[in-house]
Each structure stands twice: as structure tokens, then as C-alpha cells.
From TrEMBL:
EC number from the UniProt entry: 1.1.1.17
Mannitol dehydrogenase N-terminal domain: residues covered: 1-186
Pfam families for this protein: Mannitol_dh, Mannitol_dh_C
Residues bound to NAD(+): 3-14
Catalytic activity line of the entry: 6-phospho-D-gluconate + NADP(+) = D-ribulose 5-phosphate + CO2 + NADPH; D-mannitol 1-phosphate + NAD(+) = beta-D-fructose 6-phosphate + NADH + H(+)
Name used for this protein in its record: Mannitol-1-phosphate 5-dehydrogenase
Domain Mannitol dehydrogenase C-terminal: 197-338
Organism per entry: Salinicoccus halodurans
Top-level taxonomy: Bacteria, Bacillati, Bacillota, Bacilli, Bacillales
Gene Ontology annotations of biological process type: mannitol catabolic process
Protein family per UniProt: Belongs to the mannitol dehydrogenase family.
SUPFAM superfamilies: 6-phosphogluconate dehydrogenase C-terminal domain-like, NAD(P)-binding Rossmann-fold domains
Amino acid sequence: MKAVHFGAGNIGRGFIGKVLHDNGFEITFADVNKEIIDALNAEKGYTVHIAEENGASYDITGVSGINTVDNPGQLEQAVLEADIITTAVGVNILPIIAKSITPHLAKRLEDPRPLNIIACENAVMATDALKEAITNETGKLTASNIGFPNSAVDRIVPIQKNERILDVKVEPFYEWVIEETEWAGTDKLEGPNYVQDLMPYIERKLFTVNTGHAAIAYYGRTLGYDTVYEAMTDSKVQIFLNEVLAETQDYITAVYDFTAEEQEHYIDKIIKRFTNPHLSDDLNRVGRGVMRKLGPNDRIIKPLVYLHNEGENHEALSKLVMYATKFDNTEDPEQVEMNSLISEKGIEGFLTEHSGLESDLTKEVINTM
Ligand SMILES: NC(=O)c1ccc[n+]([C@@H]2O[C@H](COP(=O)([O-])OP(=O)(O)OC[C@H]3O[C@@H](n4cnc5c(N)ncnc54)[C@H](O)[C@@H]3O)[C@@H](O)[C@H]2O)c1
Ligand SMILES: O=P(O)(O)OC[C@@H](O)[C@@H](O)[C@H](O)[C@H](O)CO
């Protein structure tokens, strides 16, 4: 069984690569990072270390790499042989990945073996976005051997520097939930959970783990912290995090069938993950892509707008919007773009145009500070 995985970064090597390897796949990583691809081709393997006391280490073997900048032609053979294609590149990169896959797809689909294509990104229904980008190029795909399941991936993998460049340290917890209805073929992966309806799982994850992370990053930075672990030692951050997650809990339990008790249990587990002393996760990583995170369907604005419309408390999420607009990671191109939009249009104009907030909610958000 062969896999092509786009994005040989932290989640690609540390999570998706490990699951595929455990399922017996030979993995070809495709990436634009020459150093990583050269190392994959030289080493043919790497080690995943679990970040806990006496944590285990797992050797991932049978891997290789394609540098999609220097050798895009190598992708053809890899796609033709693939049983699964996955991505972990960042949701905004998916249209570029679509352009890499599309030229080889028709030929691959003449082969009756099932092919599943799955985007493993932090966004609601990211595979649908990849599928749309692919079908914009190919037209409607009528082959019955292709599946585009959406998925939710959860495992904290910080940016890190290790002695061996490919090795990667990951938290012990992981969860990969896949949309069963869209899966092509009968051979499923061991490890992921398959569900009929993914929306409850992806939104619960995004609006708890990722909204929580955003709260720690954007508020923690105003208090001068650099990492999640450091910020979580401050009771002010803990209190704010609890307030934010109480609001997203109201959204999750109103929209889906999770009970308050189930959600409280889920939150407790996540807060323990945020205080893992064996991980050092930079607030700049957790807060990266600030414009994406302030998008209408993302982790802050979607629950905020819902709670506002329902007349429910949304004060902490409103403050979170304001902390996000004040983030200061100027190495992030999205931060630079946001800063320039805010200086041109003001915060009010930015939130109305970019986040799609109605003017009464925009004013309310601004007045929380
Ligand atoms: N790190 C985490 O804790 C975590 C957890 C769950 C989900 N995610 C999601 O996984 C995705 C990847 O995150 P990450 O932390 O692994 O980031 P990362 O920066 O470590 O890895 C992304 C990789 O994609 C590569 N890339 C960029 N453009 C590319 C292109 N055009 N073609 C091929 N490769 C390209 C980069 O070179 C990099 O190696 C994001 O959507 C993120 O939200 C991350
Ligand atoms: O990757 P982002 O930028 O969408 O979000 C940053 C973090 O919240 C995220 O990467 C988490 O670590 C991850 O989603 C945990 O599963």
C-alpha cells in the first residue's frame, strides 16, 4: 500500500505519517522544503518521540520525499501508485496542492483500486475545499473508486529543533476522525475513528482545542508570555480560558448532541494537554495565521456570532477578538496584512469586512476593551 502525503512538517511526520506507517503504507512525502526532502531521501526514516515522562519512541521507516519545486515530475508516478493521498500543509495552501494532484488524477482513476484523498487541516470540511479546487480544474469526477472524506485531526506538535532534523516530538494524545460516508473502498485505516456525521466532531475540536489555544496565545501575549506552558501558569490566563471555553460549550451543546457533562469532561482533558510540561509550544505558532483565525467560519467568529444571535453570553469571545487584533507576531505575513488593513480601515472596518461581523456586534466587541 502506498501513500502520498503533502506537507512533511510537524503534523505530517509526527501524526499522519505515523498512522500511515502503522497501517503498513510506504509513504512519499511531497514538500517544498528542500532540506526536509533531502533528509527524507537520505535517511529513509525518522523517529517520533512521545512527550511524556519516559515517553516511548517509534521508528518510522519506508519513507521518501519529492521536492515539488525542483522535481514536480516525480509526482506523477507517486500519484499513480497511491492508495491514499493526504495533506497537512495549511488550509490556504490546498488550491496549490490541487494543482499538483489534478494532472495525474484521470490516469490514476483508470486503475480500479480505491483512492482516498483527505485534507488533514484545522478547518471545517477542509477536504471539501480541496475537492472543490480539484474539480474546478477537472470538472465533475464521476469515477466510483475515488473518495474525498473530510476529517478532524488533533495532536499538538510544536515547532521544534532536534538533533536529527526529521525526528519529531508529539504529545501522547491523538484523535483522527474521518467521514465514513465519503470513504472509497472497504479497507479502512486502523487508528482513526470513522463517523457518519463529522460536523459535531470537527466543530467540537476546533471550537475547544483551537479556540482555547487562541485564547492562550492572544491573551497570554498581552501579559508577556512566549509559550503555552508559561502562559498557563498564570491564573489570569486560566480564568480567561475557562470563560472562553464556557461560551464555546454553550455553542457546542446547543448545536450538537453533546451534553454539558460530556463537554466539561472534554475540556478538562484539553486543559491537561495545554499544561504538558514535556512540550514547549510557542505562542507565535499557536497564534499564527491571525487573519484565518478571525475568518467568519473559524474558531472565534463562528461561535461568537451564533451566541450573539441567540442572545447568549459572548463577552469572553468578544475580548478574544480584540486580543487577536493586537497580536504582535510581525514574522507572520497575515499579521502584517492585518495590521495594514487595521491602519487603513480601523478595527471596525477590518472586523466588518474581514470577519463579516454586523455593525452592532462590531461596536460591542470594540467596547469590551
Ligand atoms: N502542529 C499541530 O499541532 C497541528 C495539529 C493538528 C492540525 N494541524 C494542522 O496541520 C497543518 C500543518 O500544520 P503543521 O503544524 O504540520 O505545520 P508545518 O509548518 O510544520 O508543516 C507544513 C508543511 O507544509 C509544507 N508546505 C507548504 N507549502 C507547501 C506546498 N505548496 N506543497 C507541499 N508542501 C508545502 C511546509 O514546507 C511544511 O513542511 C495545518 O493545517 C495545521 O492547522 C497542526
Ligand atoms: O494550526 P492552527 O494555526 O490552525 O492552530 C494552532 C494550534 O491551535 C493547532 O495547531 C493545535 O496545536 C492543533 O490543532 C492540535 O490538534
